[in-house]
């Protein structure tokens, strides 16, 4: 049996949730017995889902649920034949006692601060000391986490987060999206949690210039978050409110339809404080549908978007550069098709779980 211990798990939405769910699903599909120890479902609007493997949920205040979850993981390891443990972050191993099986801890970047307090630095170092392997989602993250490891890069390996087979949209979902976006286009899409670092504001600031060149342009922003009100106000202030569609969080068929209907995926993410886009699985998801991406150069997005091959990278803090790179993609249909085809090939090949699962299993050896 393989144990997965995680704070983030479906049906909650998010990149880490999708990653941990994909890992558990792929392990089960590969014939492994899987037991997941996860936090309670957080989102009130999360869609219910049945799992083919055991998923144990833990609620209560955060310290209590972490303690209970760690105790349950330790009991499972001691009472069953366990091959190893995958943890979604250092926080999920912090309270674990010494175990007799290998532990692989995933690192995503946002939970590794640049300048932590001495106490937090010590907490992270002690937790990661329990890991036999540290799996970073990008070269950026791998470099960042080395400062917390006594042996530097020895236990660190980079595995780009894969995706599963994405669904093809139904005709009704495509019709619904066409009604929302109109019949002209082009359609620019962002699917993300709405927070300042995602760079949605930079795309909105570029829209006046885009609309002058492409009068039918529409910007679809799918997601929820605390930044929504600011972004809506910015769209009004820049005179493009009628061009921006804030559609809220999307899943399943309608999410597939938005991706399939988009001409360009744009998320010029930037670093704000300790918050950084250390990879960006949505860039790969867009690629499945043959949609090229615009990403920022900061953080680890360069591992997700191959500049000039599957999309373009920009200076995410320079509004003029964001605007120019967006126009470069929208103005050149041949470039857009070439980048989109390469993004599709990557997403449906090496970026699939079927190709990447062995990299995760190797970390347990």
Note down, in words, how this protein is organized:
This protein has 365 residues and is an alpha/beta fold. It has two domains: 2-158, Glycogen Phosphorylase B (Rossmann fold, 3-Layer(aba) Sandwich), CATH 3.40.50.2000; 171-347, Glycogen Phosphorylase B (Rossmann fold), CATH 3.40.50. 40% of the residues lie in helices and 16% in strands. It contains 13 helices and 13 strands. It has helices at 15-29, 62-79, 118-128, 139-145, 171-181, 200-213, 228-237, 252-261, 281-288, 301-304, 319-331, 333-347, 353-362, and strands at residues 2-6, 34-39, 54-58, 84-87, 103-107, 133-136, 156-158, 187-191, 218-222, 244-246, 264-267, 293-296, 311-314. It has a seven-stranded parallel beta sheet, with helices on both faces. A six-stranded parallel beta sheet has the order 10-9-8-11-12-13, sandwiched between helices. Strand 11, helix 9 (281-288) and strand 12 form a beta-alpha-beta unit. Helix 5 packs across helix 8 (252-261) and helix 6 packs across helix 11. The longest helix is centred in the first third of the chain and has 18 residues, at 62-79. It is globular. It starts with a strand and ends with a helix. The mean pLDDT is 95.
